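Case study.
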Amino acid sequence: MKPLLEIKDAVKTIYNDDENLNILNHINLTINPKDFLVVLGTNGAGKSTLLDAITGTNELSSGKILLNGKDITDENLAKRSRNISRVYQDPKSGTAPRMTVAENLLLAKRRGLPRRLHLRHLKENMDEFQKLISNLPTLDNRLNTFTEKLSGGQRQTLSFLMAIIQKPELLLLDEHTAALDPQTSKDLMELTNKVILEKELTCMMITHDLSDAMKYGNRLIVLKKGEIILDLNQAEKDKIKEKDLLQYF
Amino acid sequence: MNLIVSTISQGFIWSIMAIGLFITFRILDFPDMTVEGSFPLGAVTAISLIQAGHSTLFALLMAFIFGCLAGFATAFLYAKLNVPILLAGILTMTALYSINLRILGKANMSLTKSRNIFTEFGLNKLPTNFNGIILGIIIIALIIFLLIIFLNTEKGQAVIATGDNETMAASLGINTTVMKFIGLMVSNGIVALTGGLIAQQNGFADVNMGIGVIVIGLSAIIIGEVIYPDVPLSIRLITIVIGSIVYRLILMIVLQLGFNTNDLKLISAIILALCLALPTIREQFLKTMRNGVKTK
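After joint prediction, the assembly is written out as follows.
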C-alpha cells in the first residue's frame, strides 16, 4: 500500500536555556490511507509541534514530509490546507466568532482554494449545511447563529464539521475534546469516530485521554521527549490494557 | 434650524471617513493610525489637482488612490515586515506629513478656483448646507452598496475571517497577508476620499487637518454600536452614519452650552471615552442594582 504521509528524519530544534533542544528528535513515521492513528504523550513531548510541522505552521529544522509521495516540506500553510485539515484544542481557534455557523461552513467548503471576487452563494449551500447539522441536536436550527453565541462544545463540533466538510486527505485532531466537559467530550468523540469510519478518513489524533486512546483508532503511538517510544498496530493494541500505557508517562 | 442642518450635513460627510475606519477597526480588528495622515493626504491631493485645473471627480479619484497607497505602506510594514500595527500606522502617518507638505508646497492652501464638487454638479443651487447632505447621501449609498457587495464575495468573506480569527483563516488556506493589504488599502482610500470631499466643502486643505480624525471616526462607530447593538454587518454600516450625525449633534450642543472651541478636541476625546466606557458603566450599574435588590 502506498503511504499517505511519510515523515522522514524530522528534527525541530529550539534554543532554550543556553542549549539546543530537539523538540522533535529524528522522527520517522508513515501513515497509510484510512489509518486512524492515535498519538499519546506528556506535555512537551512534541505532539503539537509534530502537527504544526505537518500543516506547515512551523517549519522543521531538518527532515522531510511527503504527502502521497510528494515532498511538501517547503509548501506553505495555504497550499497544504487543500489536503490537510486540523481541529485545534481551543474551541475558539477553529471558528470565526462574528460570522454565522453557515458562513463558517461556507469558508471551510473552499478550504485551500483561492478566494475569488465572486459572490459567495450562501443560500445555494444552505440545504447541504442543514443536512450536515440535522442529526446534531446541539447545532440544529443554528445555521444563522453567530458563532460567538455558541457554547464551547457547539463551537468545537462546528470546527470539526468545518474540517471534514471538504473531505481532507489527512485530518489532524489536536486534543480536540480536551477543553470540553465529559459528556460533550464523549459526544464529540463518538461523532468523530463515526464520521472517520463512514467517510474512510485518514486521521491523526492527539489525546491525553488513555481510555479514548484505547477505544478509538487502529494504531497507537506514544511520543516522549520528541521521540516515538511505542508504535502499536491494531492487533498489538488489542493485547494491552489501559494501565499498561501508564509506564510511558 | 440652519445650525442643525449644517451639523447633520457635517455628520453625513464625516461618516464616510468613519466607514473607512470601520474596515480596519472592526473588520480587521486593529486600530490604524494611518488615517491621521491619509485624511489630509486626500485633502491636499484634491485641492492641488483642482487648483492645477483638473476636474473635481478626477481629484477625488486620485485622493482615493493616494489613500490606498498610504494603506499599502502601512500594510507592508505590518504584514510583511512584522512591525506592530500601531507603530506601522504611526510611521506612515509621520511620513505622510512630509509627503503632504511636498504635494501642497506649503502648510495650507485655499481653493481659489470657483469650482468644487458641489458647483460642478449643481448642488450649490440647493438651500445652504443641503448640498453636503445630498452629496453625503449619494456617496455613502454608493460606498455602502459597494462594500456590502464586496463583503459578500469570497474575498470579502476572507477579509472578515482574517480579522475575526487569523489562525482559523490561515488554516483554511486564506492568504491573511493579502487580506490585510486589501483592508488597509480600501480603508485608507475611503478616508482620503473623505479628506478630499471635506477640503472641497471647506474650501481649503491643511497638512494638520488630520489631527484627531481617528477620534471622530471611532466616536461615530462606537455611538452607532451603542445605539444599535447586535445588528448584521450591512446594518452596522448604516449605524455608523447615524453615529456620526449623533456625535456632531452632541458636539453642537456642547458648543452651544458655551464651551470654548479650543476645547473641541478635549470634548471629542471625552465623548469617545464615555461611549467606550458605557458598556462597563451599564454593567456595573446593573450589578449594583441587582445586589441592591438582593440585599433588600
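Observations recorded in class. The mean pLDDT of chain B is 92. The interface with chain A takes residues 149-150, 152-158, 160-161, 164-165, 167-175 of chain B (CB under 8 Å). We will return to this complex in the next lecture.
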